[in-house]
Design brief:
Elements lengths: L2 H27 L7 H17 L4 H24 L5 H20 L3 E3 L7 H5 L5 H24 L2 H11 L1 H6 L4 H27 L1 E3 L6 H16 L4 H23 L2 E2 L2 E2 L5 H24 L1
Antiparallel strand pairs: 1-2, 3-4
Helix pairs in contact: 1-6, 1-9, 1-10, 1-11, 2-3, 2-4, 2-9, 3-4, 3-9, 6-11, 7-9, 10-11, 10-12, 11-12
């Protein structure tokens, strides 16, 4: 792996780490399998790209993207809680609808951001080398959001969110409206995913309707890798494990793509295969470790 490939993997790891935090909230905290993220990531990218090309400040476009993602998550949660549609099916329906909505927002399949200002411009103007400016800025943003999530999960509302995922019947008996909690939790998750999508669009210089394909797989892989290597005891450790699991996942992808065995080498089209292998390894490793310790 070259130095620039390493820096690029770090950059992507922190950018997509915000998405992984969103996946962690639904799958681990709320126990709500949510496939909306495959549509909410390009939703955030498209909202941010269109806003910037129409003269909106790049930082303001991030907030607009997060609001759009929150709305998408609310739709999924409302389909589940109010219309009694199975959560998995509700998220698939929202994801499918978002494909058309994203094309409508962009008035086409993609929007270019070449030649317009992004959030990286002020950092680049500070004198930092270009290849270091982006990863440093994204690391600061990702760590800041991670700390905010850790703080939120320690609040009364955050504890209600965790309790709803652990035992909805118990928390209902305490007078908590679980429907409201689910709507809030799924909305917050997709707000993070859309925020990540907006960052990805500004980083790559374009928004595309297909950029969310495989988002949920990458998110789950990052969560599992992080929990396997760093553990999941405690809120802070679990959240940090999700973030750094994203970084390690991107580093593993970059490393695998650089492997050459004779005439054989991995290509970008093998990304899903590599992801599947990483998830299998992460799931099997704890069991193998337990057997070895038992012996």
């Amino acid at each position: 792996m070259t130095w620039y490939a390493f820096i690029g993997a770090l950059e992507q790891g922190f950018v997509y780490g915000i998405m992984v935090l969103g996946v962690y909230l639904t799958f681990r905290v709320l126990d709500f399998p949510d496939l909306t993220v495959d549509g909410s990531l390009p939703l955030g990218a498209s909202v941010s790209a269109v806003a910037i090309t129409n003269g909106v400040n790049p930082f303001v476009s991030l907030a607009l993207a997060a609001l759009a993602g929150f709305g998408a998550g609310m739709v999924t949660a409302l389909l589940n809680t109010k219309l009694k549609i199975l959560h998995l099916l509700a998220s698939i329906l929202t994801m499918i609808a978002l494909y058309s909505i994203n094309i409508r927002i962009m008035d086409g399949p993609n929007v270019s951001l070449l030649g317009v200002d992004t959030i990286l411009d002020p950092v680049m103007a500070s004198g930092l080398p270009g290849y270091l400016a982006a990863p440093i800025m994204y690391a600061v943003i990702a760590l800041g959001i991670t700390l905010a999530i850790i703080w939120f999960l320690h609040t009364e509302l955050g504890q209600a969110l965790m309790a709803t995922g652990d035992n909805a019947q118990m928390i209902t008996s305490q007078g908590v409206n679980t429907h409201t909690i689910i709507i809030l939790g799924v909305g917050l998750s997709n707000a993070l995913v859309a925020f990540s999508g907006a960052l990805v669009a500004q980083n790559q210089g374009a928004s595309d309707v297909n950029m969310g394909v495989g988002t949920i797989i990458a998110g789950l892989a990052s969560v599992i890798v992080g929990e396997t290597l760093f553990g999941k005891d405690g809120i802070a450790r679990a959240c940090l494990a999700a973030l750094f699991g994203s970084v390690l996942y991107r580093l593993a992808i970059a490393l695998a793509l650089g492997v050459k065995l004779g005439r054989f080498s991995f290509t970008p089209s093998d990304l899903n295969l590599i992801t599947a292998l990483l998830v299998v390894m992460a799931l099997v490793a704890p069991k193998i470790k337990a057997r070895l310790q038992a012996r």
